[in-house]
Design brief:
Elements (H helix, E strand, L loop, with lengths): L9 E9 L2 E8 L2 E9 L17 E5 L3 E7 L24 E10 L5 E10 L2 H16 L7 E6 L8 H15 L3 E6 L5 H9 L7 E6 L1 H18 L17 E6 L5 H7 L4 H9 L4 E10 L2 E6 L2 E5 H10 L7 H13 L3 E9 L20 E3 L5 E3 L21 E13 L23 E7 L3 H9 L13 E13 L5 H10 L2 H10 L14 E3 L2 E2 L5 E12 L7 H5 L1 H5 L2
Helix pairs in contact: 2-6, 3-4, 7-8
The structure holds adenosine-5'-triphosphate.
Adenosine-5'-triphosphate binds next to helix 4.
């Protein structure tokens, strides 16, 4: 039998004045709440504040209080050169007050830092409240106290420094968070500093002010440092990597801020700063990419060969055009309609983690999957037997599958890859932290069909519902472009086809102009080009953690009554 949770313990309850109205303010271990009880002007004998009124109630979870401080009240007679009405009785002046800063939800998953100031005539009572709230906040040990901040001053529209100073630093300071700030001086400055110099023990987290490229630098620095400190060789693709201890916060200040959008639900610096302050924690999977025994890169969002690789390669040549280059390169690549031959082999994920087409979107706290100390995944979902092992990071017992063919695009999405342009993303049901990636294979098809598929990234239709698109949820995969296939692979392939094809492919090894299996694309790895086409990819479950909570269900903040009911 389940024991019902204990009701939160009532800590304080007093009446204060709020904007000239009287409020009953209550603090328990879960909520600070206030409710208007009457108007000061309607005071009647025997009942200080007159008849009670059921007015709007406000509930702020204690874990969403940013700070509390005593507020200096201006002396009413301190105005210069103006007549001031001096109160007859000094106790009437409500000269004591304290202000609570807290998280308020606005539209589109945005948070803002709101304030409420409670006034009263009793200084000791105010102090008692301030101390009681501070005491509750001090119990929230998940909140960071000390952060290492890296700012890319050249990300996006070059506003990173200003965004941090004007919007973020004041919130950190209000929450009494200590910060060391480094404004980067070159590309890879943050990565190299994290890898070797940074005194990580001093901090509770790392903050990245920039775009996805800057975030990639930060994770490369932090993951490499963690593996190095643990004696793990990153060049070995079969190593089980050690999860990073420090959480990472993203303050969006780039031209592409997809990771922030997919983990917080908006690209708003204040929202991100507040998620850091309240100490949110969102685990995230990371893919390691190797070419034979050489480690290449880590990826957290999109790995794309073919279409997305070609768009990036072309857009890099057009950097001078600014963000418009992505559209121009996109159209150019679409019109060129190149396809690539190769072999994909993959280790499918366990069926318990769902499928790419199950329409189970990754939302805050869902799926409730956690990593056990043994390194395997567990779920809290009652539909799956308790503590049932889903699969382990090191599990390679599954059966590898092999697919050969001609592809316009091969994409692997470690998360939905939702962004403002594609609100549902490349793989709308991909999860942030389930130890899998969605492998999407777009086979050679007509331009029109491919256009239909691409357009579905921007609307609500199922982009996988085409005969030329296949999608698999995988733990690992390998890709070998046609021309790099070993003799045994070629023999296998040609055993399936005609002998004539083999001769043809040998001739074409020297023939770069035709598109007969030799054309080679590049992998776009979170916006960076990989130097090899033949790669092995492995998903490392929950290797990093962000100061985020995933995208909240809209209803949480659309219906304040839901909160009041708690
Ligand atoms: N001080 C610096 N000078 C030049 N480049 C830097 C500096 N600091 C970081 N970088 C590099 O700038 C690149 C882009 O940064 P960021 O992701 O913040 O902005 P962005 O505008 O979103 O980038 P992108 O052009 O990739 O869309 C990163 O790959 C990072 O390595």
């Amino acid at each position: 039998m389940e024991i019902p949770p204990k009701p939160p313990q009532l800590l304080l309850s007093s009446q204060f004045s709020l904007q000239n109205r009287v409020c009953e303010v209550t603090l328990n271990s879960a909520f600070l709440s206030w409710k208007e009880v009457g108007l000061r002007q309607k005071r009647t004998a025997g009942n200080i504040y007159g008849p009670l009124k059921a007015a709007g109630s406000h509930y702020v979870p204690v874990c969403e209080i940013v700070s509390v401080q005593e507020t200096e009240e201006e002396c009413p007679s301190a105005g210069v050169g103006k007549w001031q009405k001096v109160p007859q009785n000094p106790s009437e002046s409500n000269s004591h007050a304290f202000t609570v800063s807290y998280v308020e939800r606005t539209q589109k998953h945005r948070w803002r830092c709101s304030e409420v100031t409670f006034h009263c005539t009793d200084g000791t009572l105010c102090l008692q409240w301030v101390q009681a709230i501070r005491e509750q906040l001090s119990l929230l040990t998940i909140r960071p106290k000390s952060l290492l901040v890296y700012i890319n001053p050249y990300g996006g529209k070059h506003h990173g420094k200003r965004i941090y100073e004007q919007k973020v630093a004041p919130i950190f300071s209000r929450a009494s968070i200590f910060t060391d700030v480094i404004v980067t001086e070159r590309a890879n400055h943050a990565r190299d500093h994290l890898k070797s110099e940074a005194e990580l023990k001093k901090y509770d987290g790392v903050v990245c002010v920039g775009g996805d490229g800057m975030f990639s630098e930060i994770i490369h620095g932090l993951i490499s440092r963690t593996q190095c400190d643990s004696g793990i060789d990153q060049n070995r693709s079969d190593e089980t990597l050690v999860p990073c201890g420090l959480r990472i916060g993203i303050i969006p200040a780039g031209s592409t801020d997809c990771i922030c959008y997919a983990t917080v639900g908006s690209n708003d610096p204040v929202t991100s700063a507040l998620h850091i302050v309240v100490g949110d924690s969102q685990p995230m999977d990371v893919c390691s990419i190797h070419h034979d025994t050489t480690f290449l890169r880590y990826s957290v969002s999109l790995l794309g060969y073919g279409f997305y690789g070609d768009v990036l390669t072309d857009s890099e040549r057009k950097r001078w055009m600014g963000p418009a280059r992505y559209d121009i390169s996109g159209v150019k690549t679409f019109l060129s309609h190149r396809y690539y031959e190769g072999t994909i082999s993959f280790l499918p994920a366990d069926r318990n983690v769902g499928t790419p087409r199950d329409k189970m979107q990754c939302r805050s706290g869902f799926p409730k999957i956690k990593k056990s100390s043994a390194g395997c995944l567990q779920t809290d979902d009652k539909q799956v037997s308790k503590d049932k092992e889903i699969f382990s990071d090191t599990d390679t017992k599954g059966v590898w599958q092999v697919i050969r063919g001609k592809f316009l695009a091969i994409n692997a999405a470690c998360m939905s890859c939702a962004c403002p342009r594609s609100p549902k993303g490349l793989s709308p049901s991909a999860h942030l932290a389930d130890g899998t990636a969605d492998l999407i294979l777009v086979r050679k098809c007509s331009r029109f069909d491919f256009l239909c598929h691409l357009l579905r990234h921007t609307n609500k239709d199922d982009q996988f519902d085409h005969p030329f698109v296949e999608v698999y949820r995988v733990q690992q995969f390998r890709f070998t472009p046609r021309h790099e296939e070993t003799d045994s692979e070629l023999d296998l392939r040609e055993a399936e086809g005609s002998g004539r094809k083999r001769i043809f492919s040998q001739i074409c090894k020297e023939h770069s102009a035709c598109n007969c299996g030799l054309a080679q694309s590049s992998w776009n790895c979170d916006g960076e080009i990989l130097p090899y086409a033949a790669i092995q990819v492995r998903v490392h479950c929950q290797l990093i953690k962000l100061f985020a909570r995933g995208i909240e269900e809209q209803s949480i903040f659309d219906e304040p009554s839901a909160l009041s009911a708690i």
